[in-house]
Amino acid sequence: MVNAPEEFPRAFAEAWATRDGNAIAALFAPDADFVNVTGLWWHDTGQIAKAHDYALKSFFADSTLRPGRIAVRRLSDRVAVVHCRFRLSGQRGPDGKTAEDRHTILICVLERREDGWLAVAAQNTDVVPGKETFVNTGGLTAVDYRKP
Known about the structure:
By secondary structure, the chain is an alpha+beta fold. Helices cover 19% and strands 43% of the residues. The chain has a 6-stranded mixed sheet. A two-stranded antiparallel ribbon has the order 7-8. The radius of gyration is 16 Å and the shape is globular. The model has no long low-confidence stretch (mean pLDDT 97).
């Protein structure tokens, strides 16, 4: 739990660094939803913890997550939307080699509770520079329809 919505991205990165999925889940309400970059949708803190714990102990075991630009929109004194750009480095590829850095945008809806702010919903999206959308041609390919 965090004291202000602006603190959520830093708290998320710090929880990531612990390599403990429960530390990530502790930032979420018990019935929260989390959609990852590939569209996997977890519906409570048990699923959020389990999925992150697996990833943080395997292909993200040597990764670093760094928050960048943060934008907060308070919808009321109890609800806020937080966007944060993150840089992920150190991910291990399926071949065991270190992959190149990735950039994502995490969006969270936070609710103020008695002890602080918790995420009730989150979605993480990969940033693909220079592309507009994906096309499914037997596999997703990032494409750009704009003319040069």
